[in-house]
Design goal:
The structure is a single chain. The protein is built from nine helices and four strands; from the N terminus they run ααααβααβββααα. It is an alpha+beta fold and about 240 residues long. It has a four-stranded mixed beta sheet with strand order 1-2-3-4. The longest helix is centred in the first third of the chain and has 17 residues.
Length: about 240
């Protein structure tokens, strides 16, 4: 991964939770509906049947709202640190529910166009959380100043499965006709039976954001996912 600047900048500290106001919480709750109607102009009927992606009780997985909450917390951290929003810096995260709906309705032209529209001219990095077979993976598309996109891929299973590959390839080709499944960016894998893929995904979202700002990585994935699982994800 490449830093935004040659000279690393100081690490951004997480604000204390006491700084989170009721207004902050209300805004997050309104966004947790995972309904991008206002942002993308999609019809409500496309979302009503999948407002919440519940996982089976025997699979204690992070739902799409938890992933979206993690992204909102990252935006909140920047706000309290008097920094720009990620979107203003050129980094955007796609609503996980949009990706799930696309994979369920692959022929839906409106949903496919909504994904393309999320990659605006100002977007330099697009973060794409993908849920398939109760497993979260992350695709990252980055513009390098040319017509060609650079792709990164995070998957923390020790043995990847074909379902995730097929989903990644489909989403990649929606945005890039020349998409080829890239090798894994991460080396760390989740503990067997931990169902920690969602928390690892949040760690890598934070890592991508910090590296893009120009920070050096300071937390190992084996610790970063636990911080999300135990601490920040419970806000």
């Amino acid at each position: 991964l490449q830093l935004l600047s040659e000279k690393p900048i100081p690490e951004l500290e997480w604000p204390k939770w006491t700084r989170m106001s009721k207004k902050d919480l209300l805004l997050m709750l309104s966004c947790l509906s995972a309904n991008p109607l206002d942002m993308l102009g999609l019809e409500p009927t496309l979302w009503d049947t999948q407002a919440i992606l519940k996982c089976p009780e025997e699979v204690p997985e992070l739902e799409d709202q938890h992933i979206w909450l993690g992204w909102l917390l990252l935006r909140w951290m920047l706000t309290k640190s008097h920094e720009k929003f990620p979107e203003d810096m050129g980094i955007t995260c796609v609503d996980p529910l949009l990706i799930f709906s696309i994979l369920e309705q692959k022929a839906n032209v409106q949903l496919l166009q909504a994904l393309r529209d999320s990659f605006t001219d100002k977007t330099q990095i697009l973060l794409i959380p993908i849920l398939r077979s109760f497993h979260w993976t992350l695709l990252v598309a980055q513009r390098d100043g040319t017509q060609k996109l650079q792709w990164r891929r995070y998957d923390t299973l020790s043995v990847e499965h074909a379902g995730s590959h097929a989903a990644q390839e489909f989403i990649g080709k929606v945005l890039d006709p020349d998409f080829v499944l890239p090798p894994l960016t991460n080396v760390a894998t989740q503990p067997v039976g931990s169902n920690a893929c969602g928390a690892y995904l949040l760690h890598y979202l934070e890592l991508e954001l910090r590296l893009f700002r120009g920070e050096l990585p300071s937390v190992w994935p084996a610790l970063g996912w636990k911080q999300w699982k135990i601490g920040r994800a419970h806000v």
